[in-house]
Amino acid sequence: MDFDFTWVLLGFPIAFTLGWLASRLDLRQMRIENRQAPKAYFRGLNFLLNEQQDQAIDAFIEAVQNDPDTSELHFALGNLFRRRGEYERAVRVHEHLMSRGDLTQPERDRAQHALALDFLKAGLLDRAEVALRKLEGTSYEEEARLALLSIYERSRDWAHATEIAGKLDSANHGSFSGRQAHYLCEQAHAASASGDTAQSLETLQQAVSLAPASPRPLLDLAKLQSQLGRHADAFTTLLKLEKNAPQSLPLAAGLLGNIAQQCGQQQQALDLLQASYAAAPSIDLIEAIIKLDTGSAEPRDRYVRHLEREASLVVAAKWIAGERLGDAHQHSLVQRALDKATKPLLRYRCAACGFEATQHFWHCPGCQAWDSYPARRIEEL
C-alpha cells in the first residue's frame, strides 16, 4: 500500500501552529508572573515605608514565592523578620540562602553577615561568634571584629577581646590601645584575685607600656605595688600621672597622699597636689592637701579660700561642719540637711549616657562606654 504524503504536508502546518500557540502561552504566563513579582515587591516596599511591617512581610513572602531565585527578596525578608524580633524566621531565611549553590561569593558573605546579626540580636552569642569568625578576610571583616569585640566585652572574655582589639588596631581601624590597656587591667585584676601577683604585675606593666597616657594602668599598678609593700615604687608610678595624664590626678589624690606618708615623700606629694590644685581646683585635691599639710593652715581656712575661687555647696558644708553654732541640736539639723543636699553632687556622671554613680567607673555600667566618666564629680563639671 502506498504511503500518502498528503497527511505529512498537512501535519507540518498543524504542528507549527500548535508549537507557536504553546510558546505564546508560556510567554504570556511568564509575563504575568514577572508583572506579579514586581508588583508584590513594590507593594511590600510601600508598606515598609509606611512602617506597616506585617503587610510588608506578607507582600515580600508573595514576591519570594513568585520569584524564588531572587536573593534580594530573601535579604529584605530576613532583615524584616530580624527587625520585628522574629529571629528564628530570620535565621531560616538566611540559612536557606546559604544553602543555595548559585550564590556569588559577595552574596554568600552578605548572607553570612546577616546570619551572624540574627544570632547576635537573638542573644545566641556562641553561635554569633562562630558566624562572625567566618567573615575573616571578607568585606565584612571590620564589622565582624567590632561585633566580636562587643561579645567578648559582654561575656568578660578579656583575652579574646585583647586579641580582636589588637587586630583592629593593626588594621588601622582607629586606635584601640586604650581598650587593650583596659582589657589587660581586667586580666591583671583576675590574676591578682587568684593570688598570682607576679602575673598581675607583669600584665599591668604591659598595659602601661601599651597606653602610657591612660591613667588606669598607672593607678592599678600603684595600688598593687602599695599592697605588696613597695611604696617607693608605687609613689614613682603615681608621679608619672603628672606628665602622662594630669587631668586624672583628682582620682589619685587620696592614694598619692597615703603612699607618700608610707615612704616619707609628703613634701613632694604636697607640692604636686598644690600645683595641680592651682591649675584646676578640685574637692579631691583639697582633701588630700589638707590631709598632708597639717601645720601651715587650718582646714577651714583652706575651705574658705576654695570658696573664694569657686562656689561649692560641698565645700561650704565641710566648712560649716567645723563651725560651732550656739545650739548644738540646731547645728546637727542644719548639717544633716546639707549632707543630704550635697550627696548627689559628689557622684560621678557618665558623659555618654548620664548614668550617675558614687564611685568612678572606667567602663560605664549603663551604656558600656569606656573612659566616659570624667575624673571630677558632678558639682565640678
TrEMBL record:
SUPFAM superfamilies: TPR-like (SSF48452). InterPro entries: CellSynth/LPSAsmb/PSIAsmb (IPR051012), LapB (IPR030865), Rubredoxin_2 (IPR041166), TPR-like_helical_dom_sf (IPR011990), TPR_rpt (IPR019734). It is a single-pass membrane protein. Pfam families: TPR_19, TPR_7, Zn_ribbon_LapB. The keyword Membrane applies. It is found in: Cell inner membrane. One of its GO terms (biological process) is regulation of lipid biosynthetic process. Residues 24-381 are cytoplasmic. One of its GO terms (cellular component) is cytoplasmic side of plasma membrane. Residues 348-372 form the LapB rubredoxin metal binding domain. SMART domains: TPR. Fe cation binds at residues 350, 353, 364, 367. The keyword Iron applies. Belongs to the LapB family. NCBIfam families: PRK11788.1-3. Modulates cellular lipopolysaccharide (LPS) levels by regulating LpxC, which is involved in lipid A biosynthesis. May act by modulating the proteolytic activity of FtsH towards LpxC. May also coordinate assembly of proteins involved in LPS synthesis at the plasma membrane. PANTHER family: LIPOPOLYSACCHARIDE ASSEMBLY PROTEIN B, TPR REPEAT-CONTAINING PROTEIN PA4667. This is Lipopolysaccharide assembly protein B. It comes from Polaromonas eurypsychrophila. The gene is lapB.
